[in-house]
Amino acid sequence: MTFIIDHEMEAAARQLWPAPQRLQLATGGLFNRVVQVQSATGTTYLKRFTDSASSGDFPPLPTSASQRCLVAASWHELALRASACEPRVKVPPLIAVQTAIDLVAMDQAHGEPLYDALVTDCLETDEALRAVAAWLGAMHALPLEPRSRLLAASNPFKAFKIDLQYTRVLTEVPQSLHMAAESFIATYLLEDAEPVHGDLNSRNILIASNITSVIDFEQGHFGEGVYDLAYLISEYVIRDLRLATNPEVAFNTAWECYCEARELHKDFAILRRLRVHLAFQTLYRLVGPSRKVWTGHLTEAEKTLVRDWSIAELSTWLR
Questions:
Q1: Cα–Cα distance between 288 and 286 in angstroms, integer?
Q2: Are both 92 and 140 inside the same structural domain?
Q3: Could you read off the pLDDT of 256-276 as tens digits, one per residue?
């Protein structure tokens, strides 16, 4: 399917930025359309959520375009509040939300994806890890309303992701661990105390000149904050195993910054759940449908290291 800029997105652009210099397609997801707007005010973006995929024969997502628009806008505003608490992490300002056409408009976020540094031999990523871990601590402690409406809009997608990242990964896990793993999964599906980003991978974190930015909030849900932290740390674990360095160094860096931001005092029960989330997320990046992105650059020997590390972690921390 060839995507062209639809008339409603063009009209929204011209309403927000009179006489924009140029509109052009930008990279987006399967279930959203993104247009870059270059005008006298600079570079900005429109994102419109859709109910059908832009390419391929994909089934509908478990949440509607209007629900994802609500989630994206609400969690984006939450992220901006977190940045006010932790200014080392920037979030592009949200310019407008047009619910009639499921569209959000935002400023440009500057930098290159953290992903690029993690899949090469670059080790200069510790500052980004520290900053984002502290920023997460700030975000997870903030209230988010209207809670009931946002739960209804986000819970189906949460269940969809947990099935994909945890339940389907159980085929890779020793049978002796299944009962404890299924209990862990069921508990997380019921957990709704904290608003989490939901997709905090290294492609949604941009780094440039000591500035770290976080983007893309449409997969936000209510859960427990260490889900986000594990999602990010898993990529550092994969990098460190590939480079034959100790993944505990990056883990401890992130955990200490997160605990300090949340005043958790390194609570052991939360630590245990973080380690289980981390084991699942690391294994998921090896065997999930997006494995070519996250672990396609690894040799077979390195993939074995990732698998063995993940299973060993589950064996240690699942209780």
A1: 6
A2: no
A3: 999 999 998 889 999 999 999
pLDDT digits (tens, 9 = 90+) for 276-289: 999 999 999 999 99
Domain closes at, from 46, 78, 107: 107
Q: Which of 202, 189, 81 is nearest to 141 (CA)?
A: 81
Do 81 and 176 fall within a single domain?
no
Domain containing residue 261: 112-317
Domains held by the chain: number = 2
Question: Are residues 306 and 262 part of one domain?
Answer: yes
- End-of-domain residue from the set 58, 80, 107: 107
